[in-house]
Amino acid sequence: MASPTARSASSRTVPARPNTAFRQLRGRLSPGEFAAAVRRAAREIGEQVSCDARYVGRVESGEIRCPNYAYERVFRHMFPGLTLPDMGFAPREAVRGRGARTAAVSAARLAIEPDNRDTCIQIHEESDVLRRAFITGGPAAALGFAALHPIEAAAAAASPHLPGPRTPAVGRAGAAEATAVEQAVRRIRLLDDRHGAEGIYRRATQPLRAAYELLESDVRHRSVSDRLHSGAGELAITVGWLAHDSGRFDDARSHYAEALATARVCGDAALEAHAFCNTAFLARDAGRPREAVRAAQAAQQAAKQLASPRLLSLLALREAGGWAGLADRSGCEQALARAERLFAAGCRDSDPEWMTFYGEAELAGLEAQCWSALGDAERAADHARRAVALQDPHFTRNIALFTAELAGDLADSGAPEEAAMAGMRVLTLLEQVRSARIRTMLDGTARTLRPHRHHGPVAAFLERHAASAAAGAGPVDPGPAD
Questions:
Q1: Does pLDDT of 230 surpass 90?
Q2: Cβ–Cβ contacts within 10 Å for residue 402, how many?
Q3: How far is 438 from 469, CA to CA, in rounded Å?
Q4: Contact 248, 200 (CB under 8 A)
Q5: pTM here?
Q6: InterPro entries, alphabetically (predicted)?
Q7: Quick one: the chain helix, strand, coil %, rounded to 5?
Q8: In this structure, how many other beta carbons lie within 10 angstroms of the beta carbon of residue 97?
């Protein structure tokens, strides 16, 4: 039970209330369809927003109390004459001023109270206080991993008694359970975008186990069964990615294989393409470039029926990464050209929800990695610099990733001082992000720069890098929940 002090503090926070006005504006469109409409409206007025179904869900749940200025301009363009309050948002001064900071402080204090962890996700997402709470208390405390627990509760309700090994699950699962799985995928991806994988991987395996337990329950409608299988498969890929980014390659391979098997069982081509996509990425990072090429080609075969040029573009990049690992410059260049051509075809409503990260920045960043693998450091640095400049601020982890790529490419191309300055920016970002992959990249840059330690910026970077390594980077993975 929470203490009286905690209950008193909770009463002073601003609770998240569903934004019913915005939900009415969405009408009969699905969240994904509405997000596509928002992106189209943004292009009409020259704005660039990375709106996806997750963002729409966060607005409608009340988690986002007021949009940033870019989204505000887009929404006003879509709904002329409506003010922010008309759309169900709080006035900007209510979330930007002193009152908002007071609420954030209360939330940070509540982050250490186990019974109140889920309140913290409701506070303004840009709060410096919450970021510090993440560092000191772990992501589960600061960002409300308790929000994932409904899946476990749903699984328990669907399969309440298993008295013997031959007794099948007798509970039922419906649309509510399918929604719980889908929401877990979105929440975990949001946490990963902000903070990287290491702090959340082990906690995320619990809802994954619960999701697969739901597949054993009694499901009366085929549409619900399809949603449960697709959701469980996407959750397996998401957890696999967390393992991948944490350097746990064997775990990642197992999760991706589980997702692929689920896709084959339910005949889900989109899930199959996603599983092969991530398998190709993992194979490249694990030093198996030929497997990366084969997996990327299998993904492209599965994706042909999905009418998504952007997906095919990303899969061509996965193939290019494999060819680069094989030192096949011709094969890599052909795949890169195909990726750029498909990317230029633009977004479609049929683009998978999980691809929200894939924009110009990601295209440039993955091209940088290919040129780096082929030994063309200067060309790689040009692409990496573009990737950093174009990255949406929401994707903190990717900003750190491509800045680390830039630092390594600059070091390899004979620009040690500029490399050191980029490395310093990565170290600052690693105060918010936990990623074994990024730290490994930065370690390589430090080794390359050691012969240049007599340069002032290089010396400062090497000293800070050593101190960061000695202290341990970021918060400790809290491990499985009790």
A1: yes
A2: 30
A3: 13
A4: no
A5: 0.64
A6: TPR-like_helical_dom_sf (IPR011990)
A7: 75, 0, 25
A8: 11
